[in-house]
Design a protein that fits this description.
Length: about 200
């Protein structure tokens, strides 16, 4: 398995690569400068288990890179590492399909913590539910509505989004929590105190 780090700033890219290599020396880390290189990288290295993506690349605008990445790799974990403040882009990035949003200014310790959440270490139980340290506002809303027993249609109405978007959000949330069903998600949310926000 490989990890793609896509950033057009060599210094930042090298710093993220260094963090990843420290965490997972055995994993191949592929460095890319633009979205246009992703197709070729997938052909050469196969689908990555994780993508770290800068929002501002020479061939992207806003969250267009996130959308493009989701179309190319719908099942791959996607972390946005951006110089833009979370208040500007975090919700948009999540809506477009990002699993996490981290400001580059957060520093190595915080960036490492988020990266670690998405890297399953050898010997870890891949089937055990996981409690992430941070969920997006939308993911927390979904957990509350799931806990109330609402259907996808009811959730869509409540959040004023399409039913299809609800399904996509739930699929990502289940992957993030490593659960298979609504009831497992609700149980984990209750036992881990994820419903208070």
């Amino acid at each position: 398995m490989s990890i793609f780090v896509i950033d057009d700033h060599p210094l930042m890219r090298e710093a993220v690569v260094m963090l990843l290599r420290r965490m997972r020396a055995s994993t191949q880390v592929v460095e890319l400068e633009r979205m246009a290189s992703v197709g070729k990288a997938i052909a050469e290295h196969g689908e990555p288990e994780l993508v770290c993506l800068d929002l501002k690349l020479p061939d992207t605008h806003g969250v267009s890179g996130v959308r493009e990445m989701r179309q190319l790799l719908p099942d791959t974990s996607l972390i946005v590492l951006s110089a833009s403040p979370a208040s500007d882009y975090e919700d948009l990035a999540h809506e477009a399909g990002a699993d996490a949003y981290v400001e580059k200014s957060a520093g190595a310790a915080q960036i490492s913590k988020v990266l670690r959440e998405f890297l399953i270490e050898d010997g870890e139980d891949e089937n055990a539910p996981t409690i992430p340290s941070k969920l997006s506002k939308r993911q927390k809303q979904l957990l509350v509505l799931l806990d109330r027993g609402l259907s996808n249609r009811d959730i869509a109405e409540q959040l004023q989004i399409s039913e299809h978007t609800v399904k996509v959000h739930l699929w990502r949330l289940f992957r993030r929590l490593n659960v298979k069903s609504r009831s497992q998600a609700s149980h984990l949310a209750r036992s881990a105190g994820l419903l208070e926000f």
